Amino acid sequence: MAGIRRLTAAKPEGYTRAFEAPYIVTTARNWAGRIGRFTLTVDKGRADALVSFCRQGVRKAGPTTFVWEARGYVPDSDLRVLLVSNDPAFLGDR
After folding, report:
1. How far, in Å, CA of 8 to CA of 3, rounded?
2. What is the spatial distance between Cα 21 and Cα 27, in angstroms, rounded to a whole number?
3. 11-15, 47-51, 59-63 — most confident range
4. 7 in Cβ contact with 59 (< 8 Å)
5. Which tens digit of pLDDT belongs to each residue from 50-82?
6. H helices then E strands: how many in the chain?
7. Is the CA virtual torsion 1, 24, 63, 93 positive or negative?
8. What is the widest separation between alpha-carbon atoms in the chain?
9. What is the Cα–Cα distance from 23 to 13, expressed in whole angstroms?
């Protein structure tokens, strides 16, 4: 996933860190017709982190794992996954 962005916002007890990872599905559109079956599985890594990827029909598949499935899928925009945590080590900050 190219174009990863890190965002931080000050809080009285420290920082909240956000990590955005884009998943490019619209470039070139070189498949023939619709994508028959598309599955996106996101693991947020730890239970106290937050994840958002703004799709309807997302289901929780495990303690930290979420799945979104589509049939006859024609991407209208690239997907973006946002991870949020107050733990500096979670997103690679020390």
Report:
1. 17
2. 16
3. 59-63
4. no
5. 999 888 899 999 999 999 999 998 888 888 999
6. 0, 7
7. positive
8. 52
9. 32
